[in-house]
Design brief:
By secondary structure, the protein is mostly helical. The chain has 21 helices and no strands.
């Protein structure tokens, strides 16, 4: 049965059937092949996969990000970031990374970050003389921070799939997110200096004081959300609802930029995005149930135990495998299918649960900016009105920068675990 399911799933992938549908059809084949399993199992497992309280945070964080974009909160974050770092040569490119960091601390989605920030900064960078392919590649890559810096929807999915703490994963993602953002800022600053771009980036820049007064309510949003979570005031799931309420109040009654048509569009996009993710999770729930029933996790653990002799070789092999998988399979689907299979093996090698979750999320986030199915690339291409082929060459250095950071995160666990151990104590 497992062989049939995996082969049929890969066949459907090859036929360009959507990921969630491919997983669901493969699961149906598995139930049919078993012969003794009642068809009611499919409905039961669909429900069981979605009947998890932390998943409530997913639609709320998606809606919060869309409300921020619709109400112009992202515009104010961009102006604040430009006021901080935009005065130096290459400052506009650096401010793109900084804005993505700030926006990521509420939205939890890299695609939302690409559209919200890219719609403002890609045209601005082009006007200041940056090549359009570079600007689009930078935006697509920096938007990865949306799924690394908490709150992160992929981290919620990992936690739900493996019954681990959402709070521990969130706090473990802060260090890696800062590391990747800092490395990207250094690279784009050097790129601008070497190639002579961004000498006029300080033009039309608002001073820090006025920019902060204009954006302080927007900047307060991630402080409330993350501060409330780590201060024990509310859970990550409750924080997602508070983020939506805060974005609504600020957008409609303070800034007064969130009109009824914009609110309607934000709700529509949020419903579509949520439905896609939940459909993937539900189908992956059936698939995972059948694999567990067939004893695949134990067999996989024994097989990997024979191949890899220690923790470090195991982590290297997993990183290579996840990098290749991320190029072809959507991040959410990869997490909900693979995390329950790989985490027990990682723990048998002595890898901390939160550390492995961060490794998996950072690695699969690379898949969002690598062809042929990088969703951030398609979003950046749509914003910049440019073909995917023109992004490949300027994109490679960003992939190398993130991959180098991934290696540091993998082999220096303290980057992920330092804050977690301060907050929760040693594992």
């Amino acid at each position: 049965m497992p062989q049939l399911m995996i082969v049929s799933m890969l066949l459907f992938f090859g036929l360009t059937v959507p990921v969630a549908v491919s997983i669901g059809l493969a699961s149906i084949f598995g139930v049919a092949w078993d012969g003794h399993m009642p068809w009611m199992v499919i409905a039961q497992q669909l429900y069981a996969a979605l009947d998890k309280y932390p998943l409530v945070a997913v639609p709320f964080f998606i809606l919060a990000g869309n409300l921020m974009e619709a109400s112009g909160i992202s515009d104010r974050m961009v102006e604040f970031a430009k006021s901080v770092v935009g005065g130096m040569q290459g400052g506009l490119a650096v401010s793109c990374v900084l804005t993505c960091m700030i926006f990521a601390a509420v939205a939890g989605s890299s695609v939302a970050t690409t559209f919200a920030v890219g719609a403002i900064l890609i045209p601005a960078m082009v006007r200041h003389g940056y090549p359009k392919p570079f600007a689009a590649s930078l935006q697509a890559s920096a938007a990865e921070l949306g799924v690394i810096i908490p709150p992160s929807i992929p981290m919620i999915l990992f936690a739900v799939s493996t019954d681990t703490s959402v709070g521990e994963l969130f706090i473990a993602g802060i260090g890696p997110g800062i590391l990747i953002a800092g490395a990207m800022m250094c690279y784009v600053w050097l790129y601008a200096r070497v190639n002579g771009y961004g000498k006029q980036d300080g033009q039309n820049r608002i001073a820090l004081g006025p920019a902060f007064r204009q954006a302080w309510l927007a900047l307060l949003m991630p402080v409330i959300i993350l501060g409330g979570i780590y201060g024990g005031v509310f859970t990550p799931t409750e924080a997602s609802a508070i983020a939506v309420v805060y974005a609504l109040v600020v957008g409609m009654f303070v800034y007064r930029t969130l009109t009824v048509p914009r609110l309607s569009e934000a709700l529509r996009r949020s419903v579509i995005s949520t439905a896609v993710i939940m459909f993937v999770i539900a189908n992956a729930g059936i698939f995972g149930f059948l694999l567990n029933r067939a004893g695949i996790p134990a067999a996989l653990g024994a097989w990997l135990g024979m191949i890899f002799t220690g923790k470090y070789s195991f982590l290297l092999g997993i990183n290579v495998a996840l990098f290749l998988i991320g190029m072809f399979i959507e991040t959410s689907a990869s997490i909900v299918v693979l995390a329950p299979l790989l985490l027990p093996v990682a723990m048998s090698f002595g890898v901390d649960t939160a550390h492995f979750g961060v490794i998996m999320v950072v690695n699969l986030a690379l898949g969002m900016v690598t062809p042929p199915f990088g969703v951030n690339l398609f979003a950046a291409c749509a914003v910049a009105n440019i073909t995917l082929e023109r992004l490949i060459r300027p994109l490679l250095p960003f992939v190398l920068v993130v991959f180098a950071c991934l290696m540091l995160i993998t082999y220096m666990p303290s980057i992920s675990l330092f804050l977690k151990e301060l907050a929760y104590g040693p594992a």
